Amino acid sequence: MDSKNISRIALGAFLITAGISHLTFARKEFQAQVPEWVPLKKDDTVVYSGITEILLGAATIAAPKKYRSAMGKILCTFFVAVLPGNIAQYKNRRDAFGLNTDKLRFARLFMQAPLIFWALKSTQD
Predict the structure, then answer these.
(1) Is residue 57 packed enough to be buried (19+ CB in 10 Å), middle (13-18) or exposed (0-12)?
(2) 65 within domain boundaries
(3) Among residues 19, 8, 17, 117, which one has the least CA distance to residue 62?
(4) For residue 31, what pLDDT is reported?
(5) pLDDT in tens, 76-88
């Protein structure tokens, strides 16, 4: 197995793990990231996003080669879509995931870019 496939599978496992954490031990932490303008209850948003991450992770791992490029683009869209949660955590000064200072919450805003890069590099031919 080549490094690109290992990276893709690792990304899928990362997403599945993150999704499980949404539904279990980090549920309250994720609620701190839900922006006020989301029209759902915070817990419902966390549950739905956790299920989405599990499904995306499984699809990333299982996608046949001809669909991997499309899967990478879907993942990029997802990573951009959740950025407002990181912005809300920073803007509203909500402590979660050990991000208990403005500096740490601000630094977290820049983590989406490596995730997007990872999604693209591990799924493109």
Answers:
(1) buried
(2) yes
(3) 8
(4) 96
(5) 999 999 999 999 9
Residue 96 domain-assigned? Answer: yes
| Assigned domain for 125 exists | no
Task: Report the number of distinct structural domains present in the chain.
Answer: 1
Q: Over 90: is that where the pLDDT of 58 sits?
A: yes
What pLDDT band is residue 91 in, cutting at 50, 70 and 90?
very high
| Contacts (Cβ under 8 Å, ≥6 apart) of 46 | 22, 27, 30, 31, 34
Task: Compute the radius of gyration of the chain from its Cα atoms.
Answer: 15
Cα 7 from Cα 71, distance rounded (Å): 14
CA distance 64 to 80: 24
Q: How much of the chain exceeds pLDDT 90, in percent?
A: 98
Q: Say if CB 51 and CB 19 are below 8 A apart.
A: yes
At 1, the pLDDT band (50, 70, 90 cuts) reads: confident
Q: Specify if 23 maps to a domain.
A: yes
Residue 62, domain extent: 3-120
